[in-house]
Amino acid sequence: TQSTWVALESLDLSRNELPVLPAGLLRGCRALKRLDLGDNRLAAVPEDIVADCFALEWLSLSRNELTALPPGFLAGCPSLEYLVLCNNPVAALPPALRDDCPRLRIL
After folding, report:
1. Interval 52-75: pLDDT, tens
2. For residues 3 and 17, what is the distance between their CA atoms, to the nearest angstrom?
3. What SS3 class is residue 48?
4. pTM check: above 0.85
5. Could you say which of 12, 36, 66, 74 has the lowest number of CB atoms within 10 Å?
6. If we measure between CA atoms, which residue out of 91, 41, 39 comes closest to residue 62?
């Protein structure tokens, strides 16, 4: 259950050919620091997927089918330093990305 995920610090869902992610999947995962969603078939990500992930430092969405990220998608991730988006046809990044993630160093 999701209540057991409260102390979860790392989650690797890569290479699962996931076409979608359920909204609220990571609700309550406040300790999550590393999330790998790479190498799936994601064309979009739910706007709230990392809303509770205040400790998130590393996020990989590489090798998916993303063309855009929702505005405010990373607003709840002030600790994010690494965002990996390689091998996606992303045309533009949300304008508020730097404001939402002031520690972001690698993109």
Report:
1. 899 999 999 999 999 999 888 899
2. 26
3. coil
4. yes
5. 12
6. 39
Start-to-end CA span in the chain (Å): 32
Write the CB contacts of 62 (distance below 8 Å, at least 6 apart in sequence). 38, 39, 84, 85, 86, 87, 88
**Contact in structure between 27 and 3 (CB atoms under 8 Å):** no
The pLDDT tens digits along the chain (107 residues) read 455 788 999 999 999 999 999 988 898 899 999 999 999 999 999 988 998 899 999 999 999 999 999 888 899 899 999 999 999 999 888 888 889 999 998 77
What is d(CA 59, CA 36) in angstroms, rounded to the nearest whole number?
A: 6
* Pick from 32, 40, 39: nearest CA to 58: 32
Give the span between the Cα atoms of 3 and 37, in whole angstroms.
21
Please state, as a whole number, how many other Cβ atoms lie within 10 Å of the Cβ of residue 103.
11
